[in-house]
Every structure is written in C-alpha cells, then in structure tokens.
C-alpha cells in the first residue's frame, strides 16, 4: 500500500496527509489541523496529474475523527475553489468522521456536487473503502 504523503503547512508543520491508491483510483485525505489555502493548492498539484492521466478519481475519502475547520476565510474560499474545480472528476466521496459538521455535509453537498456522497462513522473506514472501490461496489 502506498505511503502517506504529508503536505507541508506554513511554518513547516504537517497539515493534510493524503494517500493515493493508484490501482483503485481512490484518494484518502486526512486533515490534521485547520485547513489553509496552500493545502488545497498543494493537494491539486499532487492529484491533478493522476486525474489528467486517468480521467477521474473513482473515490475520495475524507478521513478525520473531528473536522478541524479552516485557518481563515481565504482557506475556506480555496476549499470551495478546489471542490468547484474537481467535483466533476470524482465519482464518489466518502466522509468518514464522527464530526457533526462533516456528517451533514453530504446532504448539503449533493445539491452542488456531481459525485455520489455518503457519510460513514469514523470506525467504518474499511466499509467506506469498499464502497469507493469500483472492483467491489
């Protein structure tokens, strides 16, 4: 299984870890603190070449026990911009969390995002991977 990639945060701290399961076309994103604008720029630099090569991601998993929020308004805008630029290139999104905010996000996002979105409890990571995996689902 590929190793996690740490995306550097301003000041050298790790902010978002991600793991691209290339064989399944699944991206697992694990935020570890308040999201910053640079995190989304760096994530796009990492993911866009794969999408360009394969056409799309089969799945995106957001895996966090509690949603850390955004560092500032610019980070929130960068997050929306990332979603706008990528949502048509992702088949499914699994929000794997016990965070109340993220657990209701699928119902809200379904109005704006093309991907099929589902919430899973934090301890159901394997079930979420099975749902995202096109070879199993």
Under CATH at level 1, the class stands as Alpha Beta
- Looking at how many chains there are and whether they match, the oligomeric state comes to single chain
Q: How helix-rich are the residues, as a percent range?
A: 25-40%
The beta-strand count equals 6
3D architecture notes:
The chain has 4 helices and 6 strands; from the N terminus they run βββαβαβαβα. By secondary structure, it is of the alpha/beta class. It has one domain: 2-Layer Sandwich (Transcription Regulator spoIIAA), CATH 3.30.750. It has a 6-stranded mixed β-sheet, with helices on both faces. Helix 1 runs parallel beside helix 2. The longest helix has 18 residues. About 4% of the residues have low confidence.
Characteristics:
Transcription Regulator spoIIAA; alpha/beta; 137 residues; six-stranded mixed beta sheet
Strand and helix map with partners:
Blueprint: E1 5-8, E2 14-21, E3 26-31, H1 37-54, E4 57-63, H2 73-86, E5 90-96, H3 100-109, E6 116-120, H4 125-132
Parallel strand pairs: 3-4, 4-5, 5-6
Antiparallel strand pairs: 1-2, 2-3
Outline:
The protein is α/β, with parallel strands linked by helices. It has helices at residues 37-54, 73-86, 100-109, 125-132, and strands at residues 5-8, 14-21, 26-31, 57-63, 90-96, 116-120. Strands 1-2-3-4-5-6 form a six-stranded mixed sheet, with helices on both faces.
């Amino acid at each position: 299984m590929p190793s996690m990639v740490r995306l550097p945060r301003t000041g050298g701290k790790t902010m978002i870890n991600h793991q691209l399961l290339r064989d399944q076309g699944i991206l697992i994103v694990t935020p570890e603190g308040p999201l910053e604008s640079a995190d989304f720029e760096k994530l796009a630099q990492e993911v866009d070449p794969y999408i360009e090569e394969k056409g799309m991601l089969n799945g995106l998993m957001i895996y966090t026990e509690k949603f850390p929020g955004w560092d500032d308004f610019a980070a929130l805008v960068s997050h929306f911009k990332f979603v706008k630029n990528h949502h048509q290139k992702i088949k499914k999104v699994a929000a794997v969390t016990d965070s109340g905010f993220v657990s209701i996000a699928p119902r809200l996002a379904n109005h704006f995002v093309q991907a099929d979105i589902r919430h899973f409890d934090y301890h159901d990571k394997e079930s979420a991977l099975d749902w995202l995996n096109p070879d199993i689902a």
